[in-house]
Specification:
single chain, 244 residues, 2 domains
Length: 244
Amino acid sequence: MRSRSRLVAVVIALLVGAPLVGTPAPAWSEDVPPESQAETLAAEGRRLFSEGNFAGAINAYLKAHQISQAAEILYNVAFIYDKKLNEAELAMTYYRRYIGSPDADPDVVQRATARLNELKQAPPKKPPEPQPVPRDGRPQQIAGWTVLGIGGAALVAGVALVVVAKKDADTFHDTGASTGDRQTARDRGKTLAIAGDVLWSVGAAAVVTGLVVALTAPKGGQGKVSVSGAPLPGGGLVSLGGAF
């Protein structure tokens, strides 16, 4: 009985209880009585608890309980799950086991019962909210610079067509040119002028759109961008879509 009293004193000194990880069972010699084995395991649990190794402390205490069946160990395990590991379900399980033990201390049973009722009434833990996944901005940047390059090429082509159309206009107004040359210059000049205006308008819009797309690209994640263009009478249209 004195050995059992020493074990109870060792265990009740620590209000602990949590699953143990990586604590190897000591190799006992045949002449070591079970009470001493339980006391050694309880002391190991106390040491691990003081070091902050709560999982290891629980493992040691549960091994001690397998040998001694002391109710106080169950209370310690419940306490660790409750106060140190925030595992309410496991804490309630060991509080119930302690309360149902025949050798449980009546005063401690009252504390365990009160805490068990508190845990029952506590709202369940909310799962962590998923964090947004950052989007990869590289596809958007590539699309932006591509559209800008196409727009720049369209601007150059539009200006070139307008220059040629201007030369045709000069030919048309040249009184020294033949009637056939003037007629050809007039017809071609009109066509080139319209095409040059459309290319210039579409190119300017594409340059602006490409800059916006490239410069507003997110830093990371998965972005999708679609760009399309269409000529319109007297100008052009560039449309941009996607997730930014």
